[in-house]
Design a protein that fits this description.
The chain is mainly alpha-helical. It is built from four helices and no strands.
Length: about 80
């Protein structure tokens, strides 16, 4: 996946979790939890959905790497 595909996937998943928001407008370095006002359960649901959509297991130790769009892209490129 390239960065645009990763961002599109993340935005689609976040829109499902926080439907009254516009994840596509987030700056790459913005904390998605704060910017979209999602709580820890919503973030966990996002990480689970991201793992399912990409076929990757995302350990809890890596969650902090997924707080921004830039971090999500870098994580999924690794």
């Amino acid at each position: 996946m390239n960065d645009a595909e990763i961002r599109r996937l993340a935005c689609d998943l976040l829109a499902g979790i926080a439907p009254d928001t516009d994840p596509a407008s987030l700056a790459g370095g913005a904390d998605i939890r704060e910017a979209l006002d999602i709580d820890s359960i919503d973030f966990l649901n996002f990480v689970i959905a991201l793992g399912k959509a990409t076929g990757r297991t995302i350990p809890e130790a890596d969650y902090a790497r997924l707080f921004t769009m830039d971090g999500i892209a870098a994580y999924l490129r690794d």
